Amino acid sequence: MVGKGKVHNVSGVLLHTRELPAGCLKVSVDIAVEPNAALTYPSDDSDATTVHEAVGSFVAWPTNLICVGYETPTKSKSKENEVSNASAQQKKEVSNASARVKSSGAKKTVARKKPTTKYRSCLRTFLEMTDIPTGGVRIVHMEVGIFGFDYDQMIGNEDFMQVFGHEEIGVNVVNTYIRFLYDKLMRPNDLDESFGFLAPATVNLGLILSRPHTVTEYVLRILMDNKDAEKLFFIPFNTGGHWLLLAINPIREIVYYLDSLGNDWTTYPDMKVLIDT
After folding, report:
1. Helix or strand or coil: residue 122?
2. Is 54 exposed, middle or buried (0-12, 13-18, 19+ CB in 10 A)?
3. Which among 223, 173, 171 has a CA at the least distance from the CA of 199?
4. Helices assigned H by DSSP within the chain
5. Which residues pair with 27 in a beta bridge?
6. Percentages (nearest 5) of helix, strand, coil residues in the chain
7. CA-CA-CA-CA dihedral for 41, 46, 47, 51, to nearest 10
8. Is 172 within 8 Å of 139 (Cβ atoms)?
9. pLDDT at position 67
């Protein structure tokens, strides 16, 4: 066992706009049990070649090397995995199979089933009227004012399912929410003069470990472009199974650390690499 994550729908799923290799499924890596284990299919998009570098991203994984609902040796017996009821049909299809990882040393929050809100009802209605559930995607344009560069981001069915199921959310959902804040809150109130964002897909653990100069150059460019303004920059950061928020005030040389689990920042030693950067 080299890692733990979630298997995503197999029917018509694309991996970074490309078809999956034959005999593989799309897997999001949440925890690295053997960090230095090599990926069978390295990620072209993030340059990840090991399980540790692939944490927080999607990779192609050979079907015969996936064990659905398998218990990793990284947690105690008392902390049972949250696995969906595995009927024979679910095991056969593997779709929506979820093996959620929880660190045995971190504080736990019990997810309560929430009533469906009108917003999620609207999202479900929208989804049912599109081709997204059958493999289609929608484009969200991220303009240059948000992260310092512009690009088109694709939103697929798995991104909606993360929201509907209160599952661990991926970077696409985080970026879409940032786009919403930028359009509805920041720009209309001129708050983009006081607050900014750094792209979580660029300032991430995989790139920090594999291509630190890329991250350094990006952060330096954004800060230098705003060197005359006292601006607070938000960085959503994935520690490998958990999102936390960093906020940097470069003028005052202050870094704010916000963690919904209430952990001390030393819980995530790899994050110090980001702070040093």
Report:
1. helix
2. buried
3. 171
4. 88-93, 118-128, 144-147, 157-164, 171-181, 205-210, 212-225, 271-276
5. 7, 59
6. 30, 20, 45
7. -60
8. no
9. 80
Q: Per the structure block, which two tokens stand in for 270?
A: 């790899």
Give the pLDDT confidence of 156-175 residue by residue, as tens digits.
999 999 888 888 889 999 99
Ramachandran quadrant class, 181 (left: phi over 0; alpha: psi -120 to 50; beta: rest): alpha
CA distance 78 to 75: 8
Q: Closest by alpha carbon to 238, among 211, 195, 270, 215?
A: 270
Instruction: Count how many Cα atoms sit within 13 Å of the Cα of residue 126 in the half-sphere of its side chain.
Output: 12
* DSSP secondary structure letter of residue 38: B
User: Does residue 53 contact residue 210 with C-beta atoms inside 8 Å?
Assistant: yes
0.70 cut: is pTM over it? no
